[in-house]
Write a structure and sequence with these properties.
By secondary structure, the protein is α/β, with parallel strands linked by helices. It has 13 helices and eight strands. Helix 1 links the parallel strand 1 and strand 2.
Length: 370
């Protein structure tokens, strides 16, 4: 007899190329836990691909089928990249690096993409991932609204605004739009609009999980580190850090909004359900992700993908053991730091410092949770 889930969560899946295999591992472990019910998912880029595989499996056979669907997708992704010229060099293999930094084909492609666009280099718009998604995902199941709610984010090229694809209109082009890197592929056109990777405007978008779902806990599966202790000094390290900052910007703004909403609720004693209060959590592995360069996001070797999957499973296991009891009770992702550069809340009198406001809000939260 199947056990009824005790707690419901909403997932936010970041994009990051092959690093999305880390999220695969996290999802694999969460789906294994019969105490959890996944009610909704917001995904971007690789997170969008994980999201549709998850939704497809859930609709067709529940958590066990979702686990199979995720593995099928990542196996097919690795198989499609098997004969790609962009591979690790012998030096990187010998040194145990997962990056492509010394791969001649990667270096050539990287330099070429700085002077020629995909409209020049890839006029037929060849994208092997498109065929992988088309083969592995049943979009009729994805759009079955009896399963989990699904939101995929892309960036509108003309307006610069986020575009959220929702059921029942999620199709293959929706996924490819969410994962369209503008230096590699032509913009994906849907209904007369052009779209690039959603990471520029929502990595992933949190507002649909707050605005369009029942109140509840949001679990961010984080791939791109917020913080790096070392100052980048090489051109490649600078590029890597800029990539992380760019793809975290929109997420930080949304987290700041959620933290501010929490403060307002605490100070004004507002009804939480009415104002869509949400507890926020994050599953991440800083040690692993800090050791990976931007070029490894194009490494689809099966050994690398399964390494990231195993890291994701371990991170999820650690998070569940420490924080399962906190689901539905409190935040485990500290959001106070997003206010570091703010002077004071708008509703405080002149001269009141933001730091004291954060401290008081933290005290109120602690009192409410005790």
């Amino acid at each position: 007899m199947n056990r009824q889930p005790e707690k419901s969560i909403k997932l936010a899946l970041q994009g990051g190329g092959s690093h999305g295999a880390f999220a695969w591992g996290v999802l694999d472990r969460l789906l294994e836990d019969e105490r959890l019910h996944i009610a909704a998912v917001s995904g971007t880029s690789a997170g969008a691909m994980n999201a549709v595989a998850l939704a497809d499996g859930i609709a067709r056979g529940g958590p066990s089928e979702a686990r199979k669907c995720l593995e099928k997708f990542w196996r097919a992704t690795s198989a499609a990249a098997q004969y790609s010229p962009v591979r690790r060099s012998l030096f990187d293999i010998f040194m145990g690096n997962w990056s492509l930094d010394t791969s001649p084909s990667y270096i050539f492609m990287d330099h070429l993409s700085r002077v020629l666009s995909p409209y020049d280099l890839n006029p037929v718009n060849f994208n092997p991932l498109r065929d992988v998604v088309a083969r592995c995902i049943d979009f009729d199941s994805v759009n079955d609204q009896r399963g989990l709610k699904l939101f995929l984010t892309a960036t509108n090229v003309r307006t610069g605004k986020p575009k959220i694809f929702r059921q029942p209109e999620i199709r293959l082009d929706s996924v490819m739009a969410s994962a369209c890197l503008p230096f590699l592929f032509k913009a994906v056109e849907i209904d007369g609009e052009a779209y690039w990777d959603g990471g520029y405007m929502g990595n992933p978008a949190l507002f649909p999980l707050v605005d369009e779902c029942d109140a509840g806990d949001i679990v961010l599966i984080q791939i791109n580190p917020f913080y790096r202790p070392d100052i980048p000094r090489t051109a490649r390290d600078i590029q890597n850090r800029l990539n992380e900052i760019t793809f975290n910007t929109s997420l930080l703004k949304e987290l700041r909004s959620l933290a501010f909403l929490w403060e307002i609720i605490q100070y004004e004693n507002l009804e939480r359900e009415r104002f869509r209060d949400a507890h926020v959590h994050a599953i991440h592995d800083e040690k692993t992700m800090l050791g990976l360069g931007v070029s490894s996001k194009l490494n689809a070797e099966w050994a690398f993908l399964t390494h990231l999957r195993d890291c994701g499973r371990k991170a999820a296991e650690d998070w569940l053991s420490r924080h399962y009891g906190d689901i539905g009770t409190r935040n485990t992702l500290d959001l106070s730091w997003v206010f570091d550069e703010s002077l004071r809340p708008a509703h405080l009198p002149e001269g009141a410092e933001r730091g004291s406001a954060i401290k008081e809000a933290a005290q109120l939260r602690a009192a409410a949770q005790s």
